[in-house]
Amino acid sequence: MNISILQTFSNKARRRIPKEVVGIDFGATGIKLARITLTNGQPQLIAADILPALRTVDESGQSIEPQPLSLPARVKARIAALAISGTNSIIKLLSLPGHFDASAEARVIEALGLEKPENYRIGYKVIVEGHGKSESRILSVAMPETEAQIYPKLFPSGSPVPCSIELSELATLTAFANQVIKQNENVALIDFGTTTTMFSVFAKGILVLLRRFQLGTNTLLEKVQTMLGVDAETARGIISDSAFDISH
Questions:
Q1: Is there a single domain that holds both residue 167 and residue 199?
Q2: Same domain (yes/no): 87, 120
Q3: E strand map for 12-89
Q4: How far apart are CA 174 and CA 168, in angstroms?
Q5: pLDDT tens per residue, range 102-116
Q6: CA-CA distance, 136 to 101, in Å (whole number)?
Q7: Given Cys at both, which of 16, 61, 113, 140 links 124, Cβ 3.0 to 4.6 Å?
Q8: How many Cα neighbours within 13 Å face the side chain of 63?
Q9: How far apart are CA 179 and CA 182, in angstroms?
Q10: Residue 160 preceded by cis peptide, ω within 30
Q11: Rounded CA gap, 7 and 16, in Å?
Q12: How far is CA 172 from the centre of its chain?
């Protein structure tokens, strides 16, 4: 679900689906890259890579301006789709009475419960269209404007040109829904992030439940560190190997 179009295109260009795009996922542990082309109407992964995580603080803990991002040649494309963790963003699956159209957008903003909506980029996708007395189900998201403005600045000129920015959890959910879930299938998806975990349920291929929890793999790492008195690297090894080397 695209939250904001960052590049102004003509109406004709907007109707065209890019034939090649690089997906850039800014995670806490690294920047994941995936170059994808559209061949015979089907997406194909051409190349992938992982870069070091974006530095936003220096050694003393002071905030610094991130440097422009240079991509390896094999993953470069003209268009980029950005994904961020968005810990401070809000995600809700709303149920609103009756038919939903553009005139009902104000209800989405109200249901998100934002104190200052002007400080957010707000987007939504209609999951189920209501009719008569039935409810419309709307997947909605609000991303702080301050966070949304950071990442396009990493590409000040040339290629790639950022065309969208979204939350990593929703990118995972969309890919899962479009490529994995079969029609009339009941499936649950758990997306573990560094600081958040998102749980979603699909009934008959349709999203019916979504919950986001403010805990992630870092919570588990910190617990192991505290209980065993080890550093982060050792704790990570204990979790991944289910073992603890006491020979050192």
A1: no
A2: yes
A3: 20-26, 31-39, 42-51, 79-84
A4: 10
A5: 777 888 888 898 889
A6: 10
A7: 140
A8: 2
A9: 8
A10: yes
A11: 14
A12: 7
Domain C-terminal end among 180, 204, 228: 180
- The tokens of 153 are what? 């600045």
Residue with tokens 């439940």: 209
Average confidence score pLDDT of the chain: 83
The model carries a pTM of 0.79
Structure tokens at 21: 């795009």
DSSP summary character for residue 48 = E
> How distant is the alpha carbon of residue 144 from its chain centre?
14
The CA distance from 149 to 65, in Å, is: 12
Any idea what DSSP says for residue 231?
A: -
Structure tokens at 27: 């995670």
How many Cβ atoms are within 10 Å of 41's Cβ, its own excluded?
6
Residue in the block written with tokens 């805990």: 215
**What per-residue confidence (pLDDT) applies to 247?**
55
**Which amino acid is it at 176?**
F
Q: Are the CB atoms for 23 and 164 separated by under 8 Å?
A: no
List the structure tokens of 239: 């979790």
